[in-house]
Amino acid sequence: MTRVTVIGAGGYAGSHIAEAAVQRGFEVRGVNRSEVAMQIAGVSYEQGSILSQADREKAVNGSDVVVVAVSPRGNMLGQARPAIKELATLAGKAGVRLGVIGGAGSLHVSEGGPLVVESGFPEDYLEEALEMAGVLEDLRASGYSVDWFFVSPPGGFGAYNPGEFRGEYRVGGDVLLTDADGNSDISGADFGVAIADEIATPAHHHKRFTVAY
Question: Number of folded domains in the chain?
Fold first, then answer.
């Protein structure tokens, strides 16, 4: 049985990933800085922070895949990037696959075009978007020392736009995916399934990809 640890399992993306992983039949451990109020049956929860070296080591130990679904906000700002870099080093040494959920800011708006973060990006989220772009830079610079994948959700992804489960999605690379109406969306449930699919059948090694309708 594939053993999956989700760091940030109490958040929007993390909870959907954990739920989809349980439904796929994985052994799922959810790590969160605070106690998770609405717990998912089948997930083994524990408190911990990616900012703690001991908790990073614990997350890697006994896992086949570790998925990071944290946002560099509040006291995480400026600290998430180095913490994920340290986690990547630990994962590489242990032979554990690492997945990181980033933002849409580091995607290109079109092939060869500017980045989303350079195109009228909301000021309130600029710093965290740039930090997650830095995480992607670090992973790309790591070469093949760790088997990583980085996922950028669509521009309209978030708890403010939960959507409904459709059981479908498209996969892209470094360019923001939009539909015929220019929308860039995916529901939390379908996003979780996309990550569970990548864990079950790895298709992206040392690569970033994006998913959307």
Answer: 1
What is the H or E stretch that residue 209 is in? strand 207-212
Task: Give residue-wise pLDDT tens across range 168-177.
Answer: 999 999 999 9
Q: What are the tokens at 111?
A: 């092939």
- Tens of pLDDT, residues 19-78: 999 999 999 999 999 999 999 999 999 999 999 999 999 999 999 999 999 999 998 999
Q: Which of 85, 60, 69, 64 is nearest to 19 (CA)?
A: 69
Residue 170: give its domain's CATH number.
3.40.50.720
Domain boundaries, position 16:
3-212
Using a pLDDT cut of 90, give the percent of the chain over it. Answer: 96
Sheet (strand 43-47) strand order: 43-47, 27-32, 3-7, 65-68, 97-101, 148-152, 207-212, 170-172
